[in-house]
Amino acid sequence: MHYLKRKQVQEKGEQKQLQETVARVLHEIRREGDAAVRRYSEKFDRWNPDTFRLTEDEIQSAINRLPATFIEDTKFVADQIRRFHQAQLDSMSEFELETHPGIYLGQRLIPIQNVGNYIPGGRYPLLASAMMSTIPPKVAGVKRIASFTPPQKDGSGVHPKVIFALKNAGSDEIYSIGGIQAIGAMAYGTESIPPVDMVVGPGNAFVAEAKRQVFGQVGIDLPAGPSEILIIADETADVDIVAADLLGQAEHDPNARAILVTTSRILAENVIDRVQEQLKTLPTAKVAGEAWENNGEVVLVDDYDEAAKVSDEYAIEHLEIQTDRDEWFLQNLKNYGSMFVGEESTVVYSDKAIGTNHILPTMRASRYTGGLSVGKFLKTLTYQRLNREGSQFIAPVAARQARAEEMIGHAITAEKRMQKYGE
Predict the structure, then answer these.
(1) Are 409 and 398 in contact (CB under 8 A)?
(2) Strands 103-111 and 378-386
(3) Which of 333, 298, 335, 295 is nearest to 314 (CA)?
(4) What is the rounded CA–CA span in Å between residue 359 and residue 68?
(5) Quick check: is 317 catalytic?
(6) Distance separating alpha carbons of residues 400 and 403, to the nearest angstrom
(7) Residue 108 and residue 383 in contact, taking contact as beta carbons nearer than 8 Å
(8) Which of 167, 190, 339, 379 has a CA between 20 and 30 Å from the CA of residue 1?
(9) Candidate list 318, 320, 358, 415, residue with the active-site label
(10) In the chain, how many H helices and how many E strands?
(11) Catalytic entry in 209, 228, 251, 317
């Protein structure tokens, strides 16, 4: 393995300050409620409306200003997302199993009751994130979804397109609150905002840290960091497409990661050159160029086996395969958020329109978790039901095991049943 381009070392000096800032804001929100939310909304977003929750009139007024083509396209995308996540739900099941005469063990799938989803603002109106964090819990059967998203920087409130995406997806409440204050309001609740049981959705470093700090008070979906893409390519890959796909993810954020792993030195060198050419005309070149300069990597490997090993070590968020052995990689790779098999598959399809969820694990978290799915919003709860025959059969074994662990109180609960019903 040889690096033709390697990520620059990033300093972590500001991380402690970030953690302390988040902890202070969360503490004040927990203690002061609405007053702290309003104070920090004014400080961070210069936003202090009469009420943070959008009324039905405000929602409808925003929707009325949108082009018909946008509404039609967004409804199509929502339907794609809904169909895929319904298929996920259909693949899951409840069951009851009789393991021995009179011993019945079962599983139920119970939706979480209250979910808060965060939709980032900042550079772009992230419509797909709005739908992908709203539709799966709706499909799972969540009763209340409270959506939080920052106001636009021009002081006009939530972007109308985001409002429609949320409303059409099934959001029950929409709040124009961003950043740490949104996560704190969701987790702890305030006088005007009921708390949730789980917080999901991507965000910047402050939002990610806030989610980390409230975990335990509420559930969270998965660790979140800057967007990532890794492309495995060989000499058959199209240089222009590979370069474009790397930059497509790099434009997310200056901290985004874009990585090429290839068996071809010629392709590697040409991609490096082509990225620079495409940056000259890319409207988002300021962000994408910084991300590529600081975090872009090009790795030359000897063969496909080494490419697979390197890829699994990166455990990347988005993984594209552009080789003459695409199916081999699909069958053999283990660590990735979502895979895009072949040149005709690309991250933008999933990010914007195709239906699979784009809220995915970053920072090597795909070693132990997948992306956001219907299953994240379902509690797998077990139950046991025994009749007298089953109880008398299992009681002696349970009692002996409890005594072997020197937990005598446990043993007695089984032995009392043996004494009461034993022959």
Answers:
(1) no
(2) antiparallel
(3) 335
(4) 27
(5) yes
(6) 5
(7) yes
(8) 339
(9) 318
(10) 17, 14
(11) 317
Question: Given this model, what pLDDT does residue 421 score?
Answer: 82
In which residue ranges of the chain is pLDDT below 70? 9-13, 122, 423
Question: Which residues of 58-171 form beta strands (DSSP E)?
Answer: 95-100, 103-111, 114-118, 144-148
Percentage, residues of the chain above pLDDT 70: 98
Q: What is the distance between the alpha carbons of residues 55 and 396, in angstroms, rounded to a whole number?
A: 62
pLDDT score of 11: 56
Question: What angle do helix axes 56-64 and 160-169 make, rounded to 10 degrees?
Answer: 110
Per-residue confidence (pLDDT) for residue 40, from 0 to 100: 97
Distance CA 74, CA 161 (A): 9
The bridge status of strand 297-300 relative to strand 257-262 is parallel
> For residue 101, what are its two tokens?
């005469």
- The per-residue pLDDT of the chain, averaged, comes to 96
CA nearest 176: which of 280, 28, 55? 55
Is position 28 annotated as part of the catalytic site? no
Angle, helices 265-279 vs 239-250, to 10°: value is 50
**The pair of three-digit structure tokens given for residue 305, joined into one six-digit string:** 């086996």
Q: What is the pLDDT of residue 124?
A: 78
